[in-house]
Design brief:
The chain is an alpha/beta fold and about 425 residues long. It contains 16 helices and 12 strands.
């Protein structure tokens, strides 16, 4: 099996809170870096997947982030110079590839990063410790846990991204099915759907099936009261990542074998491009997506049926999966002081409230709560009960989000479960040998 860095093809879905309309797992690997400098003496150079926009632009997710940055510019008397990754010139580099290059070469001050990139750069010591910022005292523990490396908080997001199952409740009611809690109940629902003429009950793409695996792999680890000890055992080699991952991969293989997932279609489909049309047309009762997709008409925010968003099936019931993105400052940032001050403004409770109320998402601050759309209430209830699985955790020696995605894609392409487990073992051995 080949291993390597995840090649993103649309705006990073973990960055979906910033660029919801580009929601998939990465930007198209066609790179144009456009710089917008308004000519002010005090600037902060910001590398991101978005350009500066009018606050009233139609893309409310992008506008929400931009509003908070404008607020910081006015408060601090600085100008943010956007260094933008766009799909205008064709170069074979992903958003993350470019981010790694730019951080390693001290090209910018501020960066918006995906979880695996945060992990890599944090381990290399290339990101500033943000734990001294004023805003940190109000952060949820899940944010600090996910983005702390070697005792340093190296990135902070503007929203907590949560993934769940988007289900057509009307179709479940039609066949008198309860929403599944466990993997066994989920498979039974799929069997009933298929026996009633629904050929492929689960709409999937090549990025997000990893959420099923992560939910099953780490339901007990994150919710069994022994999280730190289990992670220490994994990091020391006492326990194997493959043993945690096996049930989820066997579950996916069973879904593929029974035809509940079209593996060939999923392997080549971008996020939402392969499954959205059938879900909205009520041909497919189940898809998976991130929280913000329930809020926007360009995703699943305007259905002709009752939609609910629930957690993924696990031994502990419906389980949200939460990866973590974040803003980070380069270790050798030219405008370090202004960049850090800017973060303290855009990550303040006031800015978090503007962002969360605009996008109706989960805030990283314990002090900021917003109402969610009714469809999201089941997922929100679980998260408020502190029931969830982290899709990314910088404290784990083996990076989770990107690696699991890549290995799931190999399963879709015909690689056996045993070969997938061998790849996790190889990654663990490689991490332990460093």
């Amino acid at each position: 099996m080949k291993s390597g860095k995840r090649a993103y093809t649309k705006a990073a879905v973990c960055l979906a809170g910033i660029v919801t309309c580009l929601a998939a797992c990465g930007l198209d690997p066609n790179v144009n870096l456009a710089s917008t400098n308004e000519g002010e003496d005090r600037i902060v150079n910001f590398y991101s997947p978005m350009e500066k926009t009018d606050p009233d632009a139609e893309n409310v997710a992008r506008s929400a982030a931009d509003k908070t940055i404008r607020m910081a510019e006015e408060a601090l008397g600085v100008t943010v110079n956007y260094i933008t990754y766009t799909a205008e010139s064709y170069q074979d580099k992903s958003y993350d590839d470019v981010a790694l290059d730019r951080v390693r070469n001290d090209m910018d001050d501020l960066y918006l990063l995906n979880p695996d990139t945060i992990r890599t750069l944090g381990e290399e010591g290339r990101l500033k410790d943000l734990s001294g910022l004023e805003c940190v005292k109000n952060l949820r523990d899940v944010v600090k846990t996910a983005n702390t490396i070697d005792g340093k908080l190296v990135a902070i997001p503007q929203e907590v991204v949560a993934y769940g199952l988007f289900v057509n409740k009307d179709m479940f009611d039609r066949y008198e099915l309860e929403l599944p809690e466990t993997p066994e109940e989920f498979l039974e629902c799929c069997r009933v759907f298929q026996e009633n003429g629904i050929e492929t009950p689960v709409g999937a793409n090549r990025w997000w099936l990893e959420t099923f695996v992560l939910a099953q792999a780490y339901a007990d680890l994150y919710n069994g009261g022994n999280t730190e000890a289990e992670i220490r055992a994994l990091n020391s080699g006492e326990k194997k990542y493959s043993d945690y991952m096996r049930p989820g991969f066997e579950f996916l293989q069973e879904m593929i074998d029974r035809g509940y997932v079209d593996a060939a279609k999923a392997y080549v489909s971008e996020a939402m491009e392969g499954e959205r049309e059938d879900f909205l047309a009520q041909k497919t009762p189940i898809v998976m997506a991130y929280w913000g997709a329930a809020n926007t008409d360009t995703a699943y925010g305007n259905t002709d049926f009752e939609m609910l968003v629930v957690g993924f099936p696990s031994s502990r019931g419906q389980m949200p999966v939460m990866p973590m993105t974040g803003y980070a400052v380069g270790i050798n940032a030219e405008h370090e002081e202004d960049a850090m001050r800017l973060l303290d403004v855009i990550l303040s409770d006031e800015a978090f409230r503007i962002y969360a109320e605009t996008n109706r998402v989960i805030s990283p601050s314990v002090n900021v709560e917003v109402d969610c759309v009714p469809a999201l209430k089941p997922l929100k209830d679980r998260i408020e009960e502190n029931v969830y699985v982290l899709g990314s955790n910088a404290g784990m020696e083996v990076e989770q989000w990107g690696n699991t995605c890549l290995i799931v894609r190999e399963l879709l392409n015909g690689t056996t479960v045993e070969e997938c487990m061998a790849e996790f073992d190889r990654l663990q051995e490689e991490a332990l040998s460093k």
